[in-house]
Amino acid sequence: MTVSLVLAIVLYLAMMLVIGFATSKKNKTTDDFYLGGRKLGPFVTAMSAEASDMSGWLLMGLPGVCLMTGLAEASWTAIGLAIGTYINWLLVAKKLRIYTEKIGAVTLPEFFSKRFGDKKNVISLISAIIIIIFFVPYTASGFAACGKLFSAIFPGLNYVTAMVISAAVIVIYCTLGGFLAASTTDFVQSIVMTISLLAVLGISEGFIGGFDTAFANVANLDGYLNLFKGFNVAANTTTSYGALPVASTLAWGLGYFGMPHVLLRFMAIESPEKLKTSRRVASIWVVISMAIAVLIGLVGYSLMAKGIVGPYEDASAAETIIVDVSRFISKTGYLPAFMAGIFLSGILASTMSTADSQLIAASSSVTKDIIANFFKAKISDKKLMLIARVSVIIISVVAVFLALNPNASVFRIVSFAWAGFGAAFGPVVLLGLFWKRATKEGALAGMIAGAAMVFFWKFGIRDWFADTVLNIYELLPAFIFGLIAMVVVSLITKKPDDEVIKTFDEVKASK
Question: What value does the CA radius of gyration of the chain take, rounded to a whole number of Å?
């Protein structure tokens, strides 16, 4: 069984490396390395954007939350993310693609500086620093998730060894192929993730005798199936889930407007006209995949009651449900162990697809936005490409050291980084695209205010008022604070230069 599982996962990792080698020949310039030459097709754009977005949270976090707390938190989170996904594709994607091509921006920080006429590139520097601050630990959480996955599959395998091997594979294909390799592998990984979700749900449903049984087993748990209540399975208690927690959970959708690794996909598609197809594909995939993940959690309660998985102490422990189901499939001979290995590769895919995109975004911040744009270093494109690849390696090494602790909470790191990007960049992206009066001073104020409020709310307000209504997800208050700061400062500072306004009007007139 172990040999078959290892074989399936090794073949999967080898396929990722082959893609990295194949795409490396297409990187002639740093623009190719960081944006793939704006040549992504609509399906690769859609699926790579969503695969890089969902990460291991989709296959591990969401089922675990649903299993141990009921439908409320998992469902409202999924609804918020689904709405955020669709609106982001509908409102932001096309305009950002047109704008960035017109002003010649290949990174998000570069877009900010050129959009607001910041010739000193201060906005580019600050936004690049924010990207590094949030993406390095975010990448580390991805490496840690890979290490935990392998440790759960193979109890005899050391966590650090497993984590380093996973990180090395990601670093190799990212260093070779850059953005194009990350996008192509993410497309493949989205397919593997989908197969894993469908297979595990179908097989789990068969183990317990159908969905009717699954719903019947939780029907008597007060609050489990209620969207405005919750049920703590471990403590066997009912909890409330009122309007403010619902709004806070829905706010996950606001994060999309500021996610660099998602926004880069919009910028990289070969034609703005093809974004309509991408939007449909992405929106449908997100809704279906999250619905399946929630159902896996719901079915998981019956699996745990029958002793097939668990028992779990909390939602964090329940994140291994798909791993446990896959191992059970292998042990019982229900399916060949090799097939179970493919399912487990789906979890690995969900984690790798996010970590690779984060590495490219963080590396571009170091090379393009700080070294080339802010410090205006006169370096040949060939040497800049070398620096770009070296920066991927350096950032990865730092992330590996941060991931050495196997007890670190992956979900907490992800949710914090998601809030950071959403609050720091979301208001700037939206107002930059849709408000002519937005100024560079306003953008800088909104960016700093949003990022700072994430830290203040997370480590101040939520700790000080843990038992009050203020104990909500930090993204919502931080996003609002950043938005207000940008509007107020823009209105009290000098209006943008004529050239900036002219470009804005030309983009607005584009169809």
Answer: 22
